[in-house]
TrEMBL record:
GO terms for cellular component: plasma membrane. It is a multi-pass membrane protein. PANTHER family: ABC TRANSPORTER PERMEASE YTRF, MEMBRANE COMPONENT OF TRANSPORTER-RELATED. It is found in: Cell membrane. This is ABC3 transporter permease C-terminal domain-containing protein. The chain crosses the membrane at residues 42-66, 357-381, 416-443, 463-487, 562-584, 924-945, 980-1000, 1012-1038. Residues 367-496, 928-1043 form the ABC3 transporter permease C-terminal domain. Belongs to the ABC-4 integral membrane protein family. Coiled coil: none annotated. Pfam families: FtsX (PF02687). The keyword Cell membrane applies.
């Protein structure tokens, strides 16, 4: 009978052991454990899902931004990948038939014409003529040119010119540099010619030829590429032009039927921004084709293949300029064909090479993902640690039944796999949904962040769902889960059956704690135990609950450190988020220059038969014309004149003025022995409405300040300055008095007047120039060497105007804020300008005379541009973008030509809106990242605290069995939580304050007077989060740990 019993027992054991190796047993065991511990399972799934969601959101955002950059690049620059330049006629069809080419567009050039002499310089010597591009020809490879006025060319003798040429005459070219010496080989070539200013209907005569480069050393000649800048060569006499126009054709006449210009004020002219001058378009003219360049896209997938295509047609292993080449590549080309590569487009298409810095966004994504993975590992690890700790006896039972260590580890990994199977798909969906929500909510701001012009109307609200990105996110999440499960799985397999069943490893005293205990026992034997002294102190102040709380915290220090660290991270993230929000808001407020929605700046040159009053009338007419645009409201205009002046003693705060010199790295302006200050100054001339507004808001007498024949100025304080590094507010005026405006200062040979200052207590005029011969000289660092000359001011001062300053104000119309100078600023009505300029009406200025020497001389020699009337027109707008388009049309039609030297429209409302949207978008991304990482940290606190409390069930049962009351018990738990709370808050607040301080320091690099602030509201929020997390975690853990009876809990040791 006994034998039968032994046989049966042995058979049962063998059966059990035979069942254990089956994989399904451990999967069922893991599934059953997850089902029985639903709260822990849910927390684990949430942790995995959060981790995967954030990783998915990061990489999906990067993929979406890259797609946005690609779209913006196509909108602004076109979809072309390669441009083959100067393709021989017999190879054009070969390129079109190449199976690697998917789309192509032939850009046909009919040659260049030499512009009139007044246009010649480093830029502007030529007018290039090309075939008018149409949509069916271009096929989306380049953005089409925008006709700003007129129409496209249709007949062979019609031409469309760049808008920069409108209104210009042959004698009054819009050149930017001095004339340069030429080779003389094209002196006999007819230059472009026309009558009057270029307008619709004008006829322009052109002789088209080929630009040809001449090597200065060898004398060899080579054709220039159609869009190359002007070739120059250094010589002892300076730069000389080292190219000429070869093989000119007959002079042909073309009728101007339109002017093209970029459609938006921020857009570049992608057709004519390169090259040696201007660009015009014709349609099938009766002239020979000089060169053909082909824009193309390919079906190639790598940059190596692209380079191979380029080498097949050019002989060079890479593109010129864009692809890493340089000008030497052009000069040393084996054949005539060269190539440009659209690197930015191919970068966004994923075609990179060792020459491009690619993947910055993805690198940042991996860094952020590493942060997320680190935080997630801690959270998910605690989840598995809880699972293993709660089921120590179950693992011991499995071990006693013969389960191997590998099988025990497999059990934990099976649980990890199940959690990952559920959590990762949820995380992927949540990540995609969250990313879509963010991009939908902040689509306009994201579009502005990527490209203001490309997404100005549509915003950016779609996301790129890339299978590779999703697979990468899932892989990183899986790696995170299994790294988190590794240590708990290893611990589960290392526990002996007896220890596991008795639970003797649930509470372990560290080596440090054992050393402290031994040290205290030895000290106690000698009567010198400090530990007992502190324990007695704790007993007297906090009672037994306080002593027990201290012991629990020291014996479970590892778990305590995890909880404190997680709390500190949560608090720090909240404080950092608040700091970023605070300083971004400050940035938005300060950078707003207070100007109008739209501002138009004009430079009006007076012709010889005009007076200052004539110029003012045309400026006012321009202002009224622009104010007629639908939705636009005129808010005033002003003229700005910069000059040098002296101020009576006591008028200027000299210390404040000197600080300007420090900020702007300029020499101190100087004060004479009697206290008179010499300094640069600005005079603003306001329209009548704006001037009357200043008088009314500051309670000034209109009769005293309103006489244009005897003007009395108003001085401005509270002006904002920006030295390129920081913003500040200045009060330069201390009292009223008289300002002596220096209106005419004599010139000296080979030098230009630059400022009035003080030397040895006496006023002087300072000049700078290149010296004898007026030739530029440079030092070893490439910096220009100037001869500096000083003359006593009374010897060179030909005229001045004594201007009374009757008031100092800080309240003035908003548009003035943007134009108030860093130096003393005076304000007058525009009607006073003719009075101040009366003595300068007969002065003829040119570019070689400093405008500071004759600030009110607005006349220039024919063909030159000297001083001009600088006017700024301000407008409010209901729809700033629509108003901008309407105003640009008026500018193109009425405010162009040789009189209007330069006109520029600034859409401040759209710029401010774009900056605000970009700031809000950046803040949103930062807050989303902080919110999710904070949630991971909070979940980590929850897991850690619940784990530490649940594992102390028997300890709590024992304390209650020996008489600890509920109040004392709660007091002990509260003291433990208080320890976690104050330590987490202290560390988190300190860490958050340090990071916020670094943000503050970064802001201080650009803004003066900014105070360091840790936002109090966010501190309160951090305290609330800590209290809420601790309260919820403790309540849940205590409810779960006290669910059984005291006797039943204590009997567990008897197993």
């Amino acid at each position: 009978m006994a034998e039968d019993t032994r046989t049966t027992t042995s058979a049962g054991a063998n059966a059990a052991q035979g069942a254990l190796p089956r994989r399904g047993v451990f999967w069922r065991f893991a599934a059953r454990s997850l089902k029985l511990n639903r709260s822990r399972t849910i927390v684990s799934i949430i942790g995995i899902a959060l981790s995967c969601a954030l990783i998915t959101a990061i990489f999906t955002s990067v993929a979406t931004l890259y797609e946005g950059l690609l779209k913006a690049e196509i909108v602004t620059e076109g979809a072309w990948q390669v441009e083959l330049v100067n393709v021989p006629e017999d190879e054009i069809d070969v390129v079109h038939a190449d199976p690697r080419v998917t789309r192509s567009y032939d850009r046909i050039s009919y040659g260049d014409a030499i512009m009139p002499k007044s246009f010649e310089g480093y830029w502007g010597r030529y007018l290039s003529v090309q075939e008018w591009p149409t949509a069916d020809k271009v096929k989306g490879l380049k953005p089409l040119p925008h006709i700003a006025e007129g129409r496209a060319p249709q007949a062979p003798d019609e031409i469309v010119l760049t808008h920069n040429l409108k209104g210009l005459t042959v004698e009054n070219g819009s050149w930017l540099y001095d004339n340069l010496p030429t080779t003389g080989r094209d002196d006999d070539v007819p230059r472009a010619a026309w009558d009057g200013g270029l307008e619709i209907g004008s006829v322009i005569d052109l002789a088209l030829g080929e630009r040809t480069f001449v090597d200065a050393e060898s004398g060899q000649e080579a054709p220039c590429l159609y869009d190359e800048s002007l070739y120059t060569t250094e010589s002892e006499a300076g730069d000389v032009i080292s190219e000429y126009l070869a093989n000119p054709g007959e002079v042909k006449s073309y009728k101007v039927v339109g002017f093209y210009a970029p459609e938006g004020i921020r857009k570049d002219d992608v057709w004519g921004r390169t090259g040696p001058g201007y660009l015009g378009f014709v349609s099938s003219p009766d002239v020979p084709v000089r060169t053909t360049s082909i824009y193309l896209t390919t079906n190639l997938k790598s940059r190596t293949e692209i380079d191979g295509l380029i080498e097949d047609y050019t002989g060079n292993p890479h593109a010129i300029f864009n692809g890493g080449g340089n000008r030497d590549d052009i000069e040393n080309m084996e054949g005539q064909t060269g190539a440009y590569s659209h690197d930015s487009l191919m970068r966004y298409q994923g075609m990179t090479d060792d020459r491009s810095i690619w993947g910055t966004l993805y690198t940042l994504a991996f860094i952020l993902s590493a942060v997320v993975i680190g935080a997630s590992i801690s959270l998910i690890y605690n989840s598995f640690a809880i699972a293993v700790s709660e089921r120590t006896r179950q693992f011991g039972l499995l071990s006693s039944l013969g389960a191997s260590k590998r099988q025990l580890r497999r059990t934990v990994y099976a649980e990890a796999s199940m959690l990952a199977i559920i959590g990762i798909p949820i995380g992927l969906l949540v990540g995609l949904a969250g990313t879509f929500a963010v991009f939908t909510f902040a689509g306009e701001g994201i579009g502005m962040l990527i490209d203001q012009e490309a997404f100005a109307k549509t915003g950016f609200s779609t996301i790129a769902i890339n299978p590779a990105v999703l697979a990468l996110s899932a892989l990183l999440a899986i790696i995170t889960v299994f790294i988190s499960a590794t240590i708990p799985a290893w611990r589960a397999s290392r526990i002996s059956a007896v220890d596991a069943i008795r639970g003797s490893r649930d509470v372990r005293i560290s080596r440090r704690e054992r050393r402290e205990m031994r040290k205290n026992r030895r000290a106690g034997a000698r009567g010198t135990s400090f530990g007992r002294v502190f324990d007695n102190l704790r007993l007297r102040t906090a009672g037994v609950p306080g002593l027990l709380a201290h012991r629990n915290l020291t014996r479970a220090s590892a778990k305590g450190r995890v909880a404190v660290a997680s709390l500190a991270v949560s608090v720090a993230l909240i404080i950092i988020s608040g700091g970023i929000s605070h300083y971004l808001n400050y940035l938005t407020q300060v950078v707003d220059n207070g100007g109008s929605d739209i501002e138009v700046s004009l430079n009006r040159r007076l012709e010889l038969d005009e007076t200052t009053s004539d110029g003012l009338k045309e400026i006012e007419d321009a202002y009224r014309a622009l104010a007629t645009v639908d939705g636009a409201t005129g808010e005033g205009y002003m003229l700005l004149t910069s000059l040098c002046a002296s101020f009576e003693p006591g008028m200027i705060d000299y210390g404040e003025l000197s600080s300007q010199s420090e900020h702007y790295d300029m020499p101190d302006r100087g004060m004479t022995d009697d206290g008179t200050v010499y300094a640069p100054a600005s005079v603003l001339f306001l329209d009548d409405a704006s001037w009357n507004q200043i008088l009314e808001e500051n309670g000034l007498d209109r009769k005293r300040f309103g006489d244009p024949k005897n003007p009395v100025a108003v001085a401005l304080n509270g002006t904002q300055s920006n030295d390129g590094k920081r913003y500040s507010v200045r009060d330069l005026f201390s009292s009223t008095g008289t300002a002596n405006l220096l209106t005419n200062i004599a010139s000296v040979d080979n030098a230009m007047f630059v400022e009035a200052g003080v030397d040895d207590g006496e006023p002087v005029a300072r000049y700078e120039g290149y010296g004898e011969g007026d030739e530029a000289r440079f030092d070893e660092n490439g910096e220009p060497i100037y001869d500096k000359v000083a003359r006593p001011l009374d010897e060179v001062l030909l005229d001045s105007y004594e201007l009374p300053v009757g008031a100092i104000v800080k309240t003035f119309p908003s548009p003035i804020k943007a134009y108030a100078s860093i130096w003393p600023t005076l304000v007058l009505p525009v009607s006073a300008l003719p009075t101040l300029a009366a003595s300068s009406e007969g002065i003829i200025d040119d570019k070689d005379v400093s405008s500071l020497a004759t600030p009110f001389a607005f006349h220039s020699e024919e063909g030159t541009y000297g001083n001009t009337m600088y006017a700024y027109l301000s407008f409010g707008a209901e729809d700033a973008r629509a108003a901008e388009i309407g105003m640009n049309e008026i500018i193109a039609d009425k405010i162009t030509g040789s009189k209007w030297y330069r006109t520029y429209l600034s859409n401040n409302a759209e710029n401010a809106r774009a900056e605000r949207l970009i700031g809000e978008t950046v803040q949103l991304f930062i807050n989303c990242f902080i919110l999710i990482t904070g949630a991971i940290a909070v979940a980590n606190v929850f897991n850690t605290l619940t784990n530490s409390i649940i594992l102390r069930r028997r300890e709590f049962a024992m304390l209650k069995s020996i008489g600890m009351g509920q109040r004392a018990f709660w007091r002990m738990i509260a003291l433990e939580c208080f320890s976690y709370a104050w330590r987490g808050l202290a560390i988190g607040l300190a860490l958050g304050a340090v990071v916020t301080f670094f943000i503050y320091q970064a802001m201080m690099m650009s803004f003066e007077g900014l105070g360091f602030v840790v936002p109090f509201g966010w501190v309160i929020a951090a305290v609330g989060v800590v209290i809420a997390v601790l309260a919820v975690s403790t309540a849940y853990a205590l409810r779960k740990s006290s669910s059984g009876s005291i006797v039943q809990t204590l009997r567990e040791d008897a197993i």
